[in-house]
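I hope you will forgive my troubling you with a question about protein structure. I should value your view on which stretches of the chain appear to form regular backbone elements. Here, with my thanks, is the record as I have it:
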Amino acid sequence: MSLPRGAIPPPTFEGDHKPKTRGDRAIAFIEKYCLVPEGKLVGQPIRLDLFQKDFIWSVYDNPAVTTEGILSMARKNGKTALIACLLLVHLVGPEARLNSQIVSGARSRKQAALVFNLAWKMVKLNPKLKVLVRVIPSAKTLIGLALNVTYEALSAEAGTAHGLSPVLAILDELGQVRGPLDDFVEAIETASGAYDDALRLIISTQAPTDADMLSIKIDDALRSKDPKIVVRLYAANPKAELLDPEAHKAANPALGTFRSKVELLAAAEKAARMPSAENGFRNLYLNQRVNRFSPFISPSVWGACIGDTDDEAFEKGEVYGGLDLAETTDLCAFVLAALWNGVWHLRAWFWKPDATLKDHAKRDRVPYDIWAEKGFINTTPGVAVDYEYVAHDIARICEGVPVIKIGYDRHRFKTLETQMQKVGIELPFEPFGQGFISMAPAMDLIEIDFLNEKVRHGGNPVLTMCAANAVVKKDPAGNRKLDKAKSTGRIDGMVAAVMARGVAALNDNGDGGAALDDYLAAGAMFA
């Protein structure tokens, strides 16, 4: 077989070691021509671990022809280096294709530059590669001269994903994409339409929640068993202990070779000592679906309280409400909390302007439009929440329910109050501030309820999203409130739930809020 001028001939092996498949040839190329780009082994030939070879064989030797390969594992297991190796396989190696394009996509310019820089270093270290590759550092571009193959490192920040037609697209750290939608990723995924056998590779740690893009892709692939999609997921059991060596091994396939056991154990011990570091460790080191920013209610505690709510609780129990009106162009939340047989049952309702659903679904990367179709969000016409609709809905929700008090924030309440007066709706509203003085005791009480599994929330997906996003802010005295500014997404439903629990404590009949006495005894005044 004749080779293009300057092309590297495939490595030769003897006997049983002769590469016979696409996967064999890719592995042989990497171990023959790719050198360790940095670190204590810099300049030495790369030796792929078995898990890396397994992924390559599974992707390239798939009889169904792989369209998407997903490799998910904890950090520092050689993800970026593997990406750099594979793009060189397609740039000047056995998978190179005449006049083709390769792209790697990352969320930030810095992450995109990491892939480019590692590939560039590999090229510079090997004289045989160096003469075959032209480097354009300013454009983060490599050109394979033999077959005119172009590689470009893209970032979502730069917005450069349109106008391409890659035969190979590699998405680096897709787990950083929040929600199920992302314009940048969509542009890369739809750009490969010129090829019947275009390949997309995703190499990343897991996303924080089941509702994020990478989680949806992994779950769909595992559930559907689509033969064209290859998934290799290395993750610890969700219930694993932080110091469990089996959990460390499960999420870190390179442990014992090039993944440092010492550094991993040190991080585990720190997470065990400091609860604030636990979520980050579980996501980055155990590859679990955990938000790195510790939410007010942890996912495990929230999950333990997912039981169905009881209709009888809202017919015969002590019922309180919390109303968070937020911005008129965004999400409004109303939560009823019913105390029944010592358990708080939470039910939530949400409103959003119909005209903002799709745009805000992309902005916040959550499926508002799908939730609206399924009835979890009520929509009002136009681009702003129509408080007349909200007033009628709240009246309908509370009809026949023995609501004692409904806590509300004075901010933006005047408009809703006017609408209620206009149609003659009277409900037991009571002011409840969202500052530290009001929210701190209420947060303590609802946190205790959750920790003792004295809450049932029914798994409402919008309320679950709000709980996952809810981040705590403390004042110098240690008082806490939910901070919308620091949160990564909407938290309105959780704010309303805390308000409902707080107003219940203020109007306690002896069962619901005895823990509030300490605050009142100290002279705290609720604003």
Q: What stands out?
A: Residues 245-294 form one domain.
